[in-house]
Each structure stands twice: as C-alpha cells, then as structure tokens.
Amino acid sequence: MIGLILFGTFFVLVFLNVPIAVSLGLSTLIGLKYLNFSFGTFPTTMYTAISKFALLAIPFFILAGSIMDYAGISKRLIRFADVCVGHRKNGLLAVVVIVACFFAAISGSGPASVAALGGVLIPALATAGYDKGLATALISASGAIGIVIPPSIAYVVYASISDVSVGKLFMGGIIPGIIVGVCYFYAAVWASRNNKNIQHHPKASAKERWNAFKDAIWGLLMPVIILGGIYGGIFTPTEAAGVAVVYGLIVGLFVYREIKLKQLWNLLVDSAVSSGTVLYIIASAAVFAYILTTSHLAANLSAALLSFSSNKYVLMVLINIIFLIAGCFLDANSAFYILIPIMMPIVREVGIDPVHFGVFVTVNLAIGLITPPVGVNLYVGAKIARLPAGDVIKNIIPFLVAGIVSLLIITYIPPITMLLPNLMG
Question: I need a surface site. Which of 85, 288, 302, 394 has the fewest CB within 10 A?
C-alpha cells in the first residue's frame, strides 16, 4: 500500500505539472503520515542528505560552468573545432559533437551545455543549409553528453548514494561519453543524407588554426586541470570543483576579459538558483528514498525483480527499461534517489560492477533529457532556436535510436567503461 501511495501521489502531481521537487516532498509527507512517522523526520533527513562533503562539488561545478559560459569559452571552442574539421563533409555536424564533448568536461550539466552552445551552433548549422529542427535536435542530444562525460553532477549524486568513488566514475564516463557522441554524429549524418542544400566552410590555413588554438587553449586546459588534478591525486573531486571556479574567474576576468565586475552579481545569482534547485530535489528525493528503505518497499521490489530472473544480462535489460521510462519523467538526481536503493541490492547480487552500473544508468538518464514529455534539453533547445517544441521532437527520433544503440554497447561491453578506472587502479 505504501508503494501505491508514494508512487501514485508522485506521478499524479507530476502529470499535474507540479515541480518535481515539490511532488517528491508532498508525496513523502503523505507517506510519512500513512506510516505514522514523525514529521520531524522530513527536515532531519533532508539536512542529512545534502550535508555530505561530496555534494559540495555540485554548486561549484554549476558556478564553474556559468563562469566559463560568461567568459566566452564556448564560442572559442566552436571556432577552434570549426577551423579543424568544418571544411570536411558533414564537418559542422562533427563540430557540434566535438564541442559538446569538450563543454561537457566543463559544465557537467546537459541543459547548461545546450544553452551555452545552441545560441551559436544552431544559427551556424541553419546558415550552412541544415534543417533548423534537425540542428536543434542535434544540439539537444549532444548537450545530454554533459552528464556522461566528467565532471558530471549526476556522478557526484550517484556516488553519494552508493558509496562508489567519484574519481572512478569520472574516469569510467570518458569512453562511454565519446561513444554516445559518435553515435549521435552518425545519426545526424543519416538524417541529413538527402539534403542537397548543405554548404561547407572553406578550409582554414595553418595560421588560422594556430590562432584559433591559441585563443581556445585556456578553455581546453580546464578539463585537463580538473581531471588531471583528480587522477593525479592533487585534489579531490570536490576540491577540483573549487579549483575550476578560481581558474574560470582568472580566465574570464584577466585573460579573455569578457567577464565584467558588474556581471558577477548576476552570474552568482544564476548559479545559486540552479544549485538551490538541484539540492532541493536531492533533499526531497532523499526522504522519498528513506521511506522506500525503512518500509522495506525497496527490498521487496528488489526481491521481486530477482525472482523474475537471476540472469545478469536479463536483469540489465530490465534495469535499462526501468531507467529509460524513469528518464521520460524524472531528472537524473531524482531518479537516482528513488531507484538506486531498489537496484543496488540487485547489482551486488548478480555481480555487476557498481562503477559500470553507475555509468550505464547515467547514459539512460542522458537519453531521458531528450525524451518527451519532460525532455528538458528539447525545450531548452526549442527556446533558443525559437521553434515550436513539436518541430524539435519530430527530429529527435534518429538520436533516440542512436542513444539506445550506444546504451546497449556500453551496457553489454563492460570493459568500455572499466578500462580507464582499472588502468588507474
């Protein structure tokens, strides 16, 4: 009964367009009342959930991404990728994916990547003859790589729930993120195969490439500093987020000089609002997860899934289906807090590596960023392109197929994920 109350109330509120954080909070309050738990459990559990040191990385990574966007990093990365491959057949499509992968290593957020890159790349693709709806769909899909390639806020949240090393998750996400990007590139090539209006940029000279590289070098160095510092043992992922903020401010204020002192207040407010939203969702979802655990609902659901099959590969299919459906309605943070307590006993029982599990379920939820009805990236992209959301949604199908193909590859070939974490020990 408690399961029906929790999930039923939650999904009814979501379908009524109540914000997810509020839906989680209200459904958990009703659950607490039904179980005769003290309402004092609610604020206590919320505070405990967000007081973890690892979660301190979230506001810092959000702030770092905002700083690098204000600093003009995205347009410099786009120019550098364009002079390198923009002249080739389908070169602009490659530019989108390459820049999305680089920006993912800065922002750690899917919608942030779409917002930062869409304003420049969507008009560029449309000018080159690509369909504007397809261009927006590609930007929206490529932006979802932001939660797969490290540093990823989703990995930080998953690590805080499952007690898995954030550094191993970051390392494990690199190759899968590239695979997702390659699949999206070929999906875009296939979708535009009959377009006769596509134009190619002239080939850049060696001097132009060198100048673009020098201009973009400070942006290219940021993921090197973040990831290199973590894997080199110089600082923790949380400390790396703070380093990224300081580095971004230095670049924005003194190197590129595109951030003005009067902009800092708006920059900080925007980042604070985004951070508050994420952490409030985490806090509310933690109470939801607490009820799942204390009422033994999570254990019962885990046992039910294990009774269906004990075959690891069959269970992987079921887990992917569950997370793909969840991604249609939930953001990654909420989905992790609701589903990880149910799935983790299964993962341990059948011998799936928690790092591998964390990466492939994150890919599931990255696909959710471009899956209606919630599909946040779709609506961000449509707003930037000034298109009806329906025009973007009808062009997203090739990318959904490509995302599922990449998901199957990552799920069923664990060495793709585990190669770098194992090399790093």
Answer: 394
